[in-house]
Amino acid sequence: MRKTPKRMGNSEARLHKRETTQKQEKIHNKVNSLKTRLEKLEVKEKPKEIPKIKLDFSLTNPPENKVVISADRLSFSYGDRKIFDKAGFKVLNGSKTALWGENGTGKSTLLNLICQKADRSIYVVPKVKIGYFHQDFENLDYEKSVLENVMKDSVQNQTVARTILARLLIRNDDVNKKVGCLSGGERVKVSFAKLFVSDANVLLLDEPTNYLDMSSMEALESVLCEYEGTVLFVSHDSAFVNAVADRLLVIENHTITEFEGNLEDYRQKMNETPKKVKDETERILIRMKMAEIAAKLSAPGADKEALEEEYMRLAAMLGNM
């Protein structure tokens, strides 16, 4: 507190003291007011906790086998065009396995063969129940709401269904929208949610990231990584594959090679191989990157100019190899 001036009388001194006290009280009140406002801001700005999916996976009656899908000496052709020639592979229980290869090597074909059990060379253990995602949305009823669609064949309760939808960025009243009113990306997310709460214990996903923007793709990555079941998927998006996959089935020259690890691990391993093999692998990776860019060009909000420039750069690299 400021001292009272020496020449000031008693009444003036009392007045000075009162004014000083009032000023200090005002300052104190302002400080407290600011603290309260800051505390409110901190509460508002605190990020929401991501709701955990409490899915009861035992309701899907999952298989106990170490290997849930396998093939031995698989051969398949479209007319004269050979796709697989005495190929073999295993899909491990609980794994997140990506099918990786150039366009036209048979990735989607293999998913179809597994789903339809169309070839004797492919063995699926009896307790496997397949949930198959592809782009035609045939599992959706456009006249019903999001929640009605998801709950139709669900073995999980509505709380789990709502949590999964929220994790996929479909929240609150949006669950009551008719599916026919949704965008392509939103329908993709509803299809996924429907699979996650169904009795399926093995998911086959064909190009799951089509139509999804970046935030939706990251949301899907997170949900897939938490999923207890087995996932076998195809995607041109290398970042998505790298984030989700813990194994690869690499399709090349009509055969299938198993690789333990994600895409980054695979690329690192390829860098240690002899030059001839390395060059061929590099050509394959460039072609696949070009296919990934071509797919992104149709995505909502895509920077087409930058993507086209990158596509031309890769094409030039391929031409010079």
From TrEMBL:
One of its GO terms (molecular function) is ATP binding. The keyword Repeat applies. It comes from the Bacteria. The keyword Secreted does not apply. SUPFAM superfamilies: P-loop containing nucleoside triphosphate hydrolases. CDD domains: ABCF_EF-3. Residues 1-30 are annotated as: Disordered. Residues 69-278 form the ABC transporter domain. Residues 18-28 have a biased composition (Basic and acidic residues). Keywords: ATP-binding, Nucleotide-binding, Repeat. This is ABC transporter. It comes from Acetivibrio straminisolvens JCM 21531.
